[in-house]
Amino acid sequence: QVQLVESGGGLVQPGGSLRLSCTASGSIVRIINMGWYRQAPGKQRELVAIFTRYGITNYADSVKGRFTISRDNAKNTMYLQMNSLKPEDTAVYYCYGEVSGAYWGQGTQVTVSS
Questions:
Q1: Where are the beta strands (DSSP E) in the chain?
Q2: 47: burial class by Cβ within 10 Å (0-12, 13-18, 19+)?
Q3: Is the pLDDT confidence value at 28 over 90?
Q4: Are 108 and 93 spatial neighbours (Cβ–Cβ below 8 Å)?
Q5: Burial class (CB in 10 A: 0-12, 13-18, 19+), 74
Q6: pLDDT averaged over the chain?
Q7: Order of strands across the sheet that contains 18-24
């Protein structure tokens, strides 16, 4: 079983930056797929960025070139650096991990507004 805890959300102006963190209860090396999803009001949850079991990193087209996913195995933590934020990036961001089942964090709100 895995517990995932996100942090780092908040209110930012358009064009600004935020870094989200996701800390796991235990080593993240064992997590097969690990990434970030988001859900805006009235919309379905969508993939933002993910590390896959094959060592491939995938990004949603809408965030390519602006967001960067990274991980620090020693700290059992995954990050999402978000630059050049737009109002349409406003959503609850969820950390996702897969280890013999799918696990989600509680979510952290990101609001991009002037």
A1: 4-7, 10-12, 18-24, 33-39, 46-51, 57-59, 67-72, 77-82, 91-98, 102-104, 108-112
A2: middle
A3: no
A4: yes
A5: exposed
A6: 94
A7: 4-7, 18-24, 77-82, 67-72
Mean pLDDT throughout 99-111? 94
Residue with tokens 């978000």: 82
The CA–CA distances, whole Å, from 82 to 26, 30, 42, 49 equal: 25, 26, 22, 11
- HSE (side-chain half, CA atoms, 13 Å) at 90: 12
Give 37-96 pLDDT, tens digit per residue: 999 999 999 999 999 888 899 999 999 999 999 999 899 999 999 999 999 999 999 999
Using only C-alpha atoms, the chain has a radius of gyration, in whole angstroms, of 13
Instruction: Determine the residue type at 47.
Output: L
- Give the mean pLDDT of 3-19: 97
Give yes or no for a contact between 73 and 57, defined as CB atoms under 8 angstroms apart. no
